[in-house]
Amino acid sequence: MILTIPIIISEIEFTISDSPYKKTVQVFIKGCSKGLTLWSGASYDAIGDYTQEQVDMRVLELLGDNPSQKIKDLYS
């Protein structure tokens, strides 16, 4: 029998990487080997000077309805 125990995450620690040359904004969640691309190309140009709140909302949007699975995917 395999027991599944839910994990509740109330806070995600990440680093923002903004590359004007590549026109991308990514976040790297602590402990994950892959990053999430928040904006790139035309969306990078459109967002302009983004705020921390916009970053937080975009991270939540990209993590979607199953954030634990998305974070697991970023580990591999």
Task: Provide a descriptive summary of the structure in words.
The chain starts with 13 loop residues before the first strand and ends with a helix. 36% of the residues lie in helices and 22% in strands. The protein is elongated and about 50 Å long. The chain has helices spanning 42-47, 52-63, 67-75; strands spanning 14-19, 24-29, 36-40. The chain has one domain. It is built from three helices and three strands. With 76 residues, the chain is of the alpha+beta class. The longest helix is centred in the last third of the chain and has 12 residues, at 52-63. A hairpin with a 4-residue loop joins strand 1 (14-19) and strand 2. A three-stranded antiparallel beta sheet has the order 1-2-3.
